[in-house]
Specification:
The complex is a heterodimer of chains A (285) and B (332). With 285 residues, chain A is mainly α. Chain A has two domains: 12-65, no CATH class; 74-283, MetI-like (MetI-like fold, Orthogonal Bundle). Chain A is 72% helix and 0% strand. Chain A has 14 helices and no strands. Chain A has helices at residues 12-42, 46-50, 64-71, 75-106, 112-124, 128-140, 148-155, 159-170, 174-182, 187-195, 200-216, 219-224, 232-238, 249-283. In chain A, helix 1 (12-42) crosses helix 14, helix 4 (75-106) packs across helix 8 (159-170) and helix 11 crosses helix 14. Chain A starts with 11 loop residues before the first helix and ends with a helix. By secondary structure, chain B is an all-alpha fold. Chain B has two domains: 6-46; 91-325, Orthogonal Bundle (MetI-like fold). Helices cover 71% and strands 0% of the residues of chain B. Chain B is built from 13 helices and no strands. Chain B is flat and about 95 Å long. Chain B starts with 5 loop residues before the first helix and ends in a 7-residue tail after the last helix. Classes of the chains: A mainly alpha (285), B mainly alpha (332). At the A-B interface, helix 1, helix 4, helix 5, helix 6 and helix 7 of A face helix 2, helix 4, helix 5, helix 6 and helix 7 of B.
C-alpha cells in the first residue's frame, strides 16, 4: 500500500509528510501572527494605529511608546507590586505544599489516606464557590487592600501542588531517607537536607506555575487592592488614557509587551518544567 | 517501610521480656512521633482548609439564605430559599445560563478536537517537533489581560487586523466581531490561548502509546485513519475523558475574558459592575456582578451554588457514562 507512488514521484508516505508539515507551519503562522502584530503595533505611531488601511509593520519603529508606557503611569510601582505578590505567594505556597506533599507521601499516620482523598476532592471542586465567601470573610477581617490575602493563600498550600509533590516524592528513592533515619535524623532534617535539595524539578515547576498564576491574575487584585496599590494586570486594562479619558492604545500595547515578557522569557528558559506541570495536572489531576 | 512492626514482635514473644517491652515502647513512641510529624507537615494546609475554605464556604451557604449586602450584619433578614427560587424568575440569570451552555458547547469540543489533532500531527515522527510544540504553546503563557488586548487589537471593527485583511479581498467589510459575533470571537480567542495546554497533555498521552500497536494495525491492513480510529483514539479515551471533565468544569465557570474583551473594557470600564456584551453574558459574570457590582452577596452566593451543583451533576453524568466509552486498562 505504502509503496504506491503518485504521478509526480512522491510515495504515499512522502505526500503525507508534505501535507503534515504544510499544516503544521500554517498553524504556527496563524497562532503567532497575533503576538507579532501586538509587538508591531506597539511600535507604531498612534496615528498609524488609527489609520483604517492595513499596515502590518510601522513605517518607523516608535520606541517612544515604550518610554510612554513606563512613564505615563507609575509603571515601576505596579510592576514591583506584581513581582512582590507573585514571588511571596509562590515561595509560601511551594513551601507549604511541599511539606504537605511529603507528609502524604512518606509519613505514615492515622487518617492520612482519608485526608488525602480530601485533597483530591478539593482539586475537582469548582473554585468559583470560594471566591465570594472569601471576599466576605476578608473584608470582615479588614485585610483587604493589603497583601494579606495572598499571604494567607500561600500559607494554606494548594491541593494541586500537594498532589504534584506527593507524586514526586513517591517516586523518590526511599533508600536515601531510610539510611538517614537509621542515623537518627529527624523527619524535618530528612526533609530539609535530603529530600528538598533533590526535588529541584518539582520545586521549579510549582514555583513557576504559582508565580505565573499571580502575575496573570486580574480578578483578585481588582477585588482586594486599591487602585493606586494594585498590580500591572489591573492597570493595563484602564490606565493608559489621555486627559479626556480616552484610551491611548499604542503605549498600552507597549506596556502589554513588557508585561508578557517575564512569562514568555521564563517559558523559553524552563519550558520543560512548565509543560511538566501542565501534563501532570491534566493527566493525573 | 520499616521491616519490624509491633505485631511481629508480639507474635515472636508472647510473654514480653523487659528488653522486648522497651523495644516495643520505642516503636510506639516512634509511631506517635510519626503521627505528630505528619500533622505538623500538613498543618498549614489543614488550617487553611478549615479557615479559608470550610468556614467561609459554610458561611456562604448561610449567607445565601439572607439578604446580606456587606453592611447589614445587624439587621439580616432570613429569606429561606427565596434567593434560590429567585434565580428562575431572574431573566438575566436564565439568559446567562443559556449563554454559558452555548459557550461550553462551542468551546469545549473545538478546543478538544483542535488540540488533539495538533498533538496527533506532532506525534507523527515530525522533525523540529520541539519547535512546533513551543510555538503552539506560546499563546498559553500570555496572561489573560494581554490576551484580551491582543483579541481587541485583532478584532476591532475598523482597526482590527482581521477586518483590515478581509477588506483586501472584500471591500468595505466591517464585521463587529466583539459585539455582534461576540460568542464566536470569545471562542476563537479562548481556543487560541488554550490550545497549547491541551496539545501538550494529549502529546504526552500519545507518546505513551506503544508504536508497535499502531504498526500492528497497519500490517493488518488498516490505513492511517482506521488505525487512528480503532487503536489510537480508544487508547487515548482516559485522557480525553479527563480533559473533557476538566474543560467543562472550567468553561461553566468562565468569567474574566468576556469582561476583558468587551469593547468598553478599555475606556474606564473593566470594573466589575460593567456588563460585557449580551451574547457573552456568562453565568459567573452575572453572579460576580451581583456580588461585587451590586453587593447582593446573598443572591450571588445562591447563584454560584446553583452553578456548582449543576457542574457537579454534569461531572457525575460524565463519570457515569465513562465505563461505556472510556478504555480502561490496568496501567496508570
Amino acid at each position: 500500500m505504502r509503496a504506491i507512488t503518485h504521478g509526480r514521484g512522491f510515495t504515499h508516505r512522502q505526500m503525507g509528510k508534505i501535507v503534515t508539515y504544510t499544516l503544521l507551519i500554517a498553524v504556527t503562522v496563524v497562532l503567532t501572527i497575533p503576538v507579532v502584530y501586538l509587538i508591531s503595533t506597539s511600535l507604531k505611531l498612534e496615528s498609524e494605529y488609527i489609520a483604517e488601511n492595513l499596515q502590518f509593520f510601522p513605517k518607523k519603529l516608535q520606541w517612544h511608546n515604550y518610554y510612554l508606557a513606563l512613564t505615563m503611569i507609575d509603571f515601576g510601582h505596579y510592576a514591583l507590586n506584581s513581582v512582590l505578590l507573585a514571588t511571596s505567594f509562590a515561595t509560601l505556597i511551594v513551601t507549604t505544599s511541599a511539606m504537605a506533599g511529603y507528609g502524604f507521601a512518606r509519613i505514615p499516620a492515622v487518617g492520612r489516606s482519608k485526608l488525602f482523598s480530601v485533597v483530591v476532592a478539593l482539586i475537582l471542586i469548582p473554585a468559583s464557590i470560594f471566591i465570594i465567601p472569601q471576599f466576605v470573610l476578608f473584608s470582615n477581617l479588614r485585610v483587604t487592600n493589603s497583601y494579606w490575602p495572598w499571604i494567607l493563600w500561600g500559607l494554606s498550600a494548594s491541593p494541586f501542588f500537594i498532589f504534584l509533590f506527593r507524586q514526586f516524592f513517591l517516586s523518590f528513592p526511599v533508600e536515601l531517607e531510610e539510611a538517614a533515619e537509621v542515623d537518627g535524623a529527624r523527619v524535618i532534617r530528612i526533609f530539609l537536607q535530603i529530600v528538598l535539595p533533590n526535588s529541584y524539578p518539582v520545586l521549579a515547576t510549582s514555583f513557576i506555575l504559582a508565580f505565573l498564576s499571580v502575575w496573570g491574575d486580574w480578578l483578585m487584585p481588582l477585588l482586594y487592592l486599591a487602585d493606586r496599590n494594585t498590580t500591572l494586570a489591573v492597570k493595563l486594562i484602564t490606565a493608559y488614557v489621555n486627559p479626556q479619558g480616552f484610551p491611548i492604545v499604542t503605549p498600552t500595547l507597549a506596556a502589554s509587551v513588557i508585561y508578557i515578557l517575564p512569562p514568555v522569557v521564563m517559558f523559553f528558559f524552563v519550558q520543560k518544567y512548565i509543560m511538566q506541570g501542565v501534563v501532570t495536572s491534566g493527566i493525573k489531576g | 517501610m520499616t521491616t519490624t512492626s509491633p505485631d511481629s514482635t508480639k507474635a515472636l514473644a508472647p510473654a514480653p521480656r523487659p528488653a522486648a517491652r522497651a523495644w516495643r515502647r520505642r516503636l510506639a513512641s516512634r509511631r506517635t512521633q510519626k503521627n505528630i510529624a505528619f500533622y505538623l507537615f500538613i498543618a498549614p494546609w489543614l488550617l487553611g482548609l478549615i479557615f479559608l475554605v470550610l468556614i467561609p464556604v459554610l458561611g456562604g451557604v448561610a449567607i445565601s439564605f439572607t439578604n446580606y449586602d456587606g453592611l447589614n450584619i445587624g439587621n439580616l433578614k432570613f429569606l429561606g430559599l427565596s434567593n434560590y427560587t429567585r434565580i428562575f424568575s431572574d431573566r438575566d440569570a436564565m439568559w446567562s445560563l443559556q449563554r454559558v451552555f452555548v459557550w461550553t458547547a462551542l468551546n469545549v469540543p473545538l478546543w478538544l478536537c483542535i488540540s488533539f489533532i495538533l498533538a496527533y500531527l506532532l506525534n507523527q515522527g515530525i522533525r523540529a517537533r520541539g519547535f512546533f510544540r513551543t510555538m503552539y504553546y506560546l499563546p498559553s503563557v500570555i496572561p489573560l489581560v494581554a490576551v484580551a488586548w491582543i483579541g481587541r487589537l485583532m478584532l476591532h471593527p475598523t482597526l482590527g487586523l482581521v477586518n483590515q485583511t478581509l477588506n483586501l479581498f472584500f471591500h468595505g467589510v466591517q464585521i463587529n466581531w466583539l459585539t455582534e459575533y461576540a460568542m464566536i470571537s470569545l471562542t476563537t480567542v479562548a481556543v487560541w490561548t488554550g490550545l497549547g495546554a491541551g496539545m501538550v497533555i494529549f502529546l504526552a498521552g500519545l507518546q505513551g502509546i506503544p508504536v508497535a500497536l499502531e504498526e500492528a494495525a497497519v500490517i493488518d491492513g488498516a490505513n492511517r485513519l482506521q488505525s487512528l480510529r480503532h487503536v489510537t483514539i480508544p487508547l487515548m479515551t482516559p485522557i480525553i475523558f479527563y480533559q473533557l471533565v476538566l474543560s467543562i468544569v472550567a468553561a461553566m465557570q468562565y468569567f474574566a475574558l468576556p469582561m476583558l474583551l468587551a469593547p468598553t473594557a478599555g475606556g474606564g470600564g473593566g470594573a466589575l459592575g460593567a456588563a460585557p456584551t449580551r451574547a457573552v453574558y456568562l453565568f459567573m459574570v452575572h453572579s460576580f456582578r451581583q456580588a461585587f457590582g451590586f453587593h447582593r452577596y446573598g443572591y450571588a452566593t445562591a447563584l454560584t451554588w446553583f452553578l456548582v451543583i449543576l457542574i457537579l451533576l454534569f461531572t457525575a453524568v460524565l463519570f457515569w457514562s465513562a465505563p461505556r466509552w472510556v478504555h480502561s486498562d490496568t496501567e496508570t
